[in-house]
Amino acid sequence: MTSTADPNRTYAAAHFALELKGVDKLGMFRSIEGGGIKADVMTYQNGGIYAKWRQLGKPKFEDLKLQVGMAMSAPFYEWIKAFFSGVPTRKDGTIIAADFYYKERARRHFENAMIKEMAFPKLDANDKNTAYMVVTLAVEDMKFLPPASGTIQQDMGNEAQKSWKACNFRFTLDGFGDIFRRVTKVDGFSVKQNILEYHTGGSRTPTLTPSAIEFPQLSFTLPEADAQPLIDHFMKRSLGVSVPRGGAAPGRFGGHIETYDNAKTTKFRLEFKSADILNIQPDKSDAGTEEIKQVKVDLYIEDLAFDYQVNPEPPSEL
Questions:
Q1: Rounded Cα–Cα distance for residues 147 and 92 (Å)
Q2: DSSP SS3 for 192
Q3: Which 3 state secondary structure label does DSSP give 100?
Q4: CB 115 within 8 A of CB 193
Q5: What is residue 95's three-state secondary structure?
Q6: 304 has which bridge partners?
Q7: Which of 202, 209, 206 is nearest to 59 (CA)?
Q8: Strand runs (DSSP E) across the chain, as ranges?
Q9: Residue 123 neighbours by CB under 8 Å, 6+ apart
Q10: Cα 78 to the center of its chain, rounded Å
């Protein structure tokens, strides 16, 4: 069976691809959304006249949201790594829509895209489903183009895409021993890059300028039986330990979140620094439940770094 020659035939939205300038093979996405164009409407009214006149104002381009897993190539993860380190890297690219036969049907070309936000999923020891990150891109320009001849690559990295499960993770805080071997959950969080719009005369679209990065709070859950060292540390800190003038706050620590695939090979590592506990909340006590009593701990952090495939060897058994 071959594809129809009718260029106006409708097609499903399940086959798509993303190209970045200078990258031959980018990898496989779970979904892509956004990237539309809209414009404000300006309204005018003269005194003494009831009628109003309207016209279009400056165009605006919606952010692109990419849901990705383990199937991306190294250049894409390097882009994310640079984002965490505060390096505003801009890239041009194209979103390609294809029909059932993977033949190109439409293109949207964007320019000067920067990573605006990266949302990390919730990790849960009881969740066997595939985990995905959501990467949001802010773009300066978007053009709708006719399709090129040819087809898109089919299911590149399909197995790798499914290999990261929400239960495959390790959470560690420096200086607290091995009490975190039984951490059951790490809540989802987002790292955001503030984007400023710089308008200049003669240009209908603004130039996007990166600003400060906002690092989130981290929250994790572990059994109450393992939480006493954290409770002791928090009580000591919250009772007013003095901080040397001009020096680092005593008692702060670092740590990392490490994720791995089904073969126990490390894929992502998020390392945080200058962290401290700001909240410890025990679970509700209920005489009718048989669940293990757990404690939720919230951390503030000052810095967060991203790395991928940092350790080709399988992690130690949990």
A1: 17
A2: strand
A3: coil
A4: yes
A5: strand
A6: 272
A7: 206
A8: 15-20, 27-34, 37-44, 53-61, 64-72, 91-98, 104-120, 123-124, 133-138, 141-145, 169-173, 185-186, 189-198, 207-214, 218-223, 253-260, 266-282, 294-300, 303-308
A9: 131, 166, 167, 169, 171, 185, 186, 257, 259
A10: 14
Backbone angles phi, psi at 198, to 5 degrees: -110, 110
Q: What is the pLDDT of residues 185-225, one digit of tens each?
A: 999 999 999 988 888 877 778 888 888 899 999 999 999 99
User: pTM score, two decimals?
Assistant: 0.84
pLDDT at 248: 40
- Kindly state the tokens that stand for 38: 């809209």
Residues 84-87: contacts with CB within 8 Å, 24+ apart? 84/118, 84/191, 84/213, 84/304, 84/305, 84/306, 85/305, 86/213
Predicted local confidence at residue 223, as pLDDT: 93
CB 105 within 8 A of CB 8: no
Q: DSSP code of 283?
A: P
β-partners of residue 108 are 95, 144
Length of the chain: 318
Tracing tokens 């600003």 back to the chain, one arrives at 211
DSSP state string for 45-86 = --TT----EEEEEEEEEPPEEEEEEEEE-HHHHHHHHHHHTT
Q: Which residue has the tokens 């069976």?
A: 1
**219 neighbors 171 (Cβ within 8 angstroms):** no
Which tokens belong to 57?
Answer: 């104002």
